[in-house]
Amino acid sequence: MSNEANQNKSAEELAAEIINEAEAQVEEQHEHAHEVISAEQEKINELELALAAAQATVADQKDSVIRAKAEVDNVRRRSAQDVDKARKFALEKFVGELLPVVDNLERAIAAFDKENDEHKAMLEGVELTLQSFLSTLEKFDVKAIDPQDQPFNPEHHQAMSMQEIEGVEPNTVIAVMQKGYELNGRLVRPAMVMVSKAKPVVDTQA
């Protein structure tokens, strides 16, 4: 704008033009700032999405690691249990084969005439053999089940017969025909027993 034109304008018009130009510059700067802020916000949003995805991936991987560790622990525990069971019960069949020998030695001792001196040395020999057998079995945690006068337990006893006995509570073991045995707490053979039974109920109204 020429100086002559400017001179012809009043002070108010010049002020208005200056204000308009200033407002235009402010508006332009505002739009530019808005564009910058929008671009920065978009970057922030992208970074937040990337962070959330990374956190989700870490959480999934952490969960996978925890599950894998738990599975390994379970496998290790089951393996240890299997090994322990195999160690404890590997002798079960062998013990089962030895028990008839123990039974026969006990029967032989019971059949000896204790009053006959001629049999005394032989009886002592059989008794020592039996004790040696029993000591060996005890070393491997083989225990006898001899429930004489004890309550009948179907988990460890096999009732061969029942008999009414005066003065004896029902379901009491009154005779042990053959001892039972367990290996490390597991039943190898039940005890064969005779069990007392209750008196029959008499109908007094008949």
Structure description:
The structure is a single chain. The protein has a 3-stranded antiparallel β-sheet with strand order 1-4-5. The chain has a 3-stranded mixed β-sheet with strand order 2-6-3, with no helix packed on it. The chain is an alpha+beta fold and 206 residues long. The protein folds into 2 domains: 3-87; 91-197, Head domain of nucleotide exchange factor GrpE (Nucleotide Exchange Factor Grpe, Chain A, domain 2). Helix 3 (92-111) packs antiparallel against helix 4. It contains 4 helices and 6 strands, in the order ααααββββββ. A hairpin with a 2-residue loop joins strand 4 and strand 5 (186-189).
By CATH, the architecture of the largest domain is named Roll
CATH uppermost class of the largest domain: Mainly Beta
State the strand order across the main sheet.
1-4-5
* Computed structural class: alpha+beta
Give the full name of the CATH homologous superfamily of the largest domain: Head domain of nucleotide exchange factor GrpE
- The number of helical segments is 4
CATH fold-level name of the largest domain: Nucleotide Exchange Factor Grpe, Chain A, domain 2
Count of β-strands? 6
Largest beta-sheet details: 3 strands, antiparallel
How would you spell out the order of helices and strands? Answer: HHHHEEEEEE
Radius of gyration: 49 Å
Strand content: 15-25%
User: N- to C-terminal separation?
Assistant: 142 Å
- Average predicted confidence as pLDDT: 82
Percentage of helical residues?
A: 55-70%
